[in-house]
User: Which sequence fits this backbone?
DNA sequence: ACTATATACTTTGTATTACAAAGTATATGA
DNA sequence: TCATATACTTTGTAATACAAAGTATATAGT
């Protein structure tokens, strides 16, 4: 049986873009982890199916860099405590930079693939 | 001074795509290392500026996987010996698979970025 | 009440890969 | 002769997607 190249290439091609996509989703308001996973799945047309072990480290990195900020909510009544993440001003500015990088790279790729 | 996010994201976003682009360039005929670096630079519009320490490990991986084959040439007269790489049938088939992955991922990214 | 399941978050370890950097060797031009 | 460009090799580092295992709470089913 042949090795599944596609699977590994898909994993590699996601590198860098997932943080960008998380920042983008947070532009429409604060969200908690599992909510981000659901929206990522829906809005990408089932293409980005994040595991929790993938998302949370991304959120921690973004928070360490000051691109998002978090706040615990719930736990008072009977709700499960949830950690809500919101994008910061610094994060919004970084998102614009990262989008520009994506446009550049994906444009260059298509130029070679179609050339 | 602020950290240069763009630089790191660019590096991450290249992961996986460089092998695809090398395979694509080899579709138009066998090429040696530095020739691939030059064509990658020209045909991408100066976007993909590979260092030799980046390209050669890619070629070795592709060869290990049987997606390209190599052959030394020159060295008989006064030419510098060059190792020419050509894409194999297996490599051509893999390229189609990898391109499909790229279309899928980049399409999903744009769907979220524009949504 | 008890159990199973879903939700929610955390942490550890692995594999992969772009890149810097240093090294070897040959050809060409000043 | 010496500097530079070409050509290939190898080592080490940083970054990140993912699997996997763990903790805790709420809800539904029996």
Assistant:
């Amino acid at each position: 049986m042949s090795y599944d190249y596609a699977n590994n290439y898909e994993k590699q091609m996601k590198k860098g873009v997932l943080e960008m996509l998380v920042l983008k989703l947070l532009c429409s308001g604060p969200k908690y982890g599992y909510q981000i996973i659901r929206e990522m799945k829906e809005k990408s047309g089932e293409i980005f199916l994040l595991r929790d072990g993938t998302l949370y480290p991304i959120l921690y990195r973004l928070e360490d860099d000051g691109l998002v900020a978090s706040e615990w909510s719930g736990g008072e009544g009977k709700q499960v405590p949830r950690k809500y993440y919101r994008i910061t001003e610094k994060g919004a500015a970084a998102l614009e930079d990262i989008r520009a990088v994506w446009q550049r790279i994906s444009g260059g790729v298509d130029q070679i693939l179609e050339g």
Summary: Chain A has a mean pLDDT of 92. DSSP finds five helices and three strands in chain A.
